[in-house]
Design a protein that fits this description.
homodimer; Multidrug-efflux Transporter Regulator, Chain: A, Domain 2; MerR_fam (chains A, B); disordered C terminus
């Protein structure tokens, strides 16, 4: 199909499509004449993935380029690609080197030990977790660590559901792409659900029905 | 304290502190002479909150300003402030008006009904959830809706833990600030945990230990 048709099907403007090609997010179409390129269903699918990561996942263009390179890198063992794809989603933050950082790091190590998680204590996700806990500690919410096991059980439940879905529904060749979609969009799904469940839980706790927002 | 001391205590550079004051995120210090201002512990605490929302929560300065206005707005019923604080965290995205959007919206309505959640079907969190599900549908993962109840149970568990923590640990005057911290940093905590649990679940499923990342 021509770029105009690709644009119509996906709702992405032609100049934006050309920008994604220049940035290496989308492979170029096959040239059918000096100034006309032909695009396939594979382009359409990749374009939808880019838009989902951008619009729903909130990833930046540079982060998407990195994730897509991991998706396209053949011959890497599944769990390594899984690691690479998800590690690259971790934000980079200002580093602190204080008591809260040390305590939070220790708490994360103990949690991983206690849950028997087969994961590296030095992984980027563990570092992200420690960073969030340290920030809470600095705000006077070190006691939040007491609910970590509730969070961990909920996270295990979600991870089982995710992997079960992948195992049942996904062809091997789509595994890595699905992991990226599941990690980024699944995060958006869970975060929205948590906010809904908060409204419900606080309505029950405070005995009120939420009124229409004003 | 002077601005230099505030900077030393929080690790935030003086020009950055002055920028936050100009942007209305941080109240100005009390002028003790024409070019010297005095800051209090309240300033220090607010500054730590700003940094946590920025560094760990990944919020933009404009979003933080909105959230802090909700925190500082007195006399609003708790659940309304809760609503306002969390609603403002929802991202604004490109809108679609297609079959996937309609199906996802219906699925969210049914989920809220089925779980008996006391929440508004037209709330921003419900819209965010529908948007994420619609994006998955467009990528061929409409079947992901089958695991929504697993996600919902995990979200309920996390929400109960959050509200339990607030109920046990938090003074009424800190309630709104804690809600903001819990929503933004709690999200970072859960997302990092989900990634850790994924590594563990896939190590179990594929029968491998994750190797050190290369």
């Amino acid at each position: 199909m021509r770029v105009g048709e690709l644009s119509r099907r996906t709702g992405v403007p032609v100049p934006t499509i050309k920008y994604y090609v220049r940035e290496g997010l989308l492979p170029p179409g096959e040239l059918t004449s000096p100034n006309q390129a032909s695009y396939t269903d594979t382009h359409e699918r990749r374009l939808r993935l880019i838009r989902a990561l951008l619009d729903v996942g909130g990833l930046k263009v540079a982060a998407i380029a990195e994730v897509l390179r991991a998706v396209d890198d053949p011959g890497r063992p599944v769990h390594k690609v899984l690691g690479a794809a998800t590690e690259r989603l971790g934000a980079r933050h200002a580093e602190h080197d204080d008591q809260e950082a040390a305590e939070a790091g220790a708490a994360v190590g103990e949690l991983i030990e206690r849950r028997g998680w087969r994961t590296d204590k030095s992984s980027p996700a563990a570092a992200d977790l420690a960073r969030a806990l340290a920030a809470m500690g600095r705000l006077g919410h070190g006691a939040f660590r007491e609910v970590l096991d509730d969070y961990a059980e909920a996270a295990e439940r979600v991870a089982r559901a995710d992997l079960g879905y992948v195992d049942r529904k996904v062809a091997v060749e789509d595994l890595v792409e699905t992991t990226v979609i599941g990690t980024v969009l699944g995060e958006a799904v869970f975060n929205a659900m948590r906010r809904l469940a908060h409204v419900d839980a606080s309505a029950r706790l405070f005995g009120t029905r939420p009124e229409a927002s004003d």
